[in-house]
Amino acid sequence: MQEQTPDTVLEQPPAAAEPEAAAQQPAADTQQPAEAAAPAKEEAPAQPAEPAAVTVVDIRFRNNAKSYYFDPAGLTLQAGAHVIIDTARGDEFGLCAAGNHPVKPRELVLPLRRVLRVATQQDERANAENQEKEKKAFEICQQKIAAHGLEMQLVSAECAFDGSKLLFFFTADGRVDFRELVKDLASVFRTRIELRQIGVRDKAKMVGGLGVCGRPFCCKEFLDDFQPVSIKMAKTQNLSLNPTKISGTCGRLMCCLKYEQEAYEDLIKTAPKMESFVDTPDGRGTVVEVNLLRQSVRVRMEDHPETIGSYKNTDIYILRSGKARKNDPPIPRDFAPISSKVLA
Q1: Best CA proximity match to 201, nearest among 256, 261, 260, 248
Q2: Is the peptide bond before 111 cis (omega within 30 degrees of 0)?
Q3: 73 secondary structure, DSSP code
Q4: I need a labelling partner for 132 at 20 to 30 A (CA). Which of 103, 176, 259, 344 fits?
Q5: For the segment 13-60, what is each residue's pLDDT rounded down to a tens digit?
Q6: Is residue 264 packed enough to be buried (19+ CB in 10 Å), middle (13-18) or exposed (0-12)?
Q7: Are 319 and 279 in contact (CB under 8 A)?
Q8: Mean of the per-residue pLDDT values of the chain
Q9: Cβ neighbours of 330 (radius 10 Å)
């Protein structure tokens, strides 16, 4: 139950106060009907005050692009600081991506995990030792995978900050029975072993690299989550449908197809369709090419089919949208709202 504040209690009108006040003021002339007391003005119900903003810090794990909110627990942190944080997997080493800043409570997933402390020199040494341990574990795991003849590709190895667990990420075309591999690795490292299968997009995000544009992978640099991308986006943007040209290094459609999709959809709303019949300052004709970005079209003239002119979308009038159908009525020859004015 939400606790009422003193202000909320004072704003509630006392129900018993009004009848007593009316009883103390009798009518002056009892023979005349007493005037009806004016109804008390109803006060608008008090709007619940918006909860106060919560101070948080953004933390990233192992150069991951995605940040998570944590409770600074009274600490004042700056971007770039190394911290030890409380997670579901225990204490972890993290990087502060953004210092203390307020966030609305509705943007949080409660309860918030806490920042335990700023990383000490001992924590830094432990993290460096874990990174060395991860490199050695990666090499040994690859050897064990080859020895067991498993069809899986190892992506990375991660060691818990307290050294209680080794986590291996891999990709595979199907399900892999790695139970014997886990037993073999546990006998070598004498710690808890976990293997997780991930997708090719997750692999690209973890490993990183350069895209066809020459820049680092978006998923590695700044994308928090993978957005759905479809071949329809490539069609809308008039891109080549050759898979090698619109696919990323991971083999899936490039994430950047999503960036300009909304802009293209807005431009399509104001552009004529292909094979539309339009009127231009030079006469009527059929649209043979649409340039969405330039907001222009190329039109093959009705009276001179060998002539093709270029016009802005604002300089034409659409007489028929899209390709003509069998049941469409013919367009009168004298119906030319733009060219008739120019010729006149």
Answers
A1: 248
A2: yes
A3: T
A4: 176
A5: 444 434 333 334 434 444 444 444 445 555 555 555 667 788 888 888
A6: middle
A7: yes
A8: 82
A9: 7
Strand residues in 18-127 grouped as ranges (E): 54-60, 68-70, 82-87, 90-103, 115-118
Cα R_g (the chain), whole angstroms = 35
pLDDT digits 0-9 by tens, 95-117? 898 888 888 888 787 788 899 99
H helix runs in the chain, sequence order: 6-11, 17-23, 121-148, 179-189, 200-207, 218-221, 231-236, 243-246, 261-270, 339-343
Using DSSP's 3-state secondary structure scheme, residue 168 falls into strand
Beta-carbon contacts of 269 under 8 Å, excluding residues fewer than 6 positions away, are none
- C-alpha to C-alpha distance for 84 and 119, rounded to whole angstroms: 6
Distance (Å, rounded) from C-alpha 129 to C-alpha 92? 14
Residue 146 to residue 228: CA distance in whole angstroms: 35
Residue 212 contacts by C-beta under 8 Å, 6 or more apart in sequence? 248, 254
Q: Who wins on pLDDT, 227 or 1?
A: 227
Structure token digits, residue 84: 């030890």
Q: How does DSSP assign 4-22, residue by residue? A: PPHHHHHHSPPTTHHHHHH
pLDDT of residue 73: 85
Helices 179-189 and 121-148 pack at an angle, to 10 degrees, of 140
What does the CA dihedral 168, 170, 175, 179 come to, rounded to 10 degrees?
Answer: -30
Structure token digits, residue 123: 């924590």
* Closest to 130 measured CA to CA, from 99, 167, 102: 167
Give all strands of the β-sheet with 317-320 in edge-to-edge order: 308-312, 296-301, 283-291, 277-280, 317-320
C-alpha separations of 50 from 1, 104, 324 in Å: 17, 9, 57
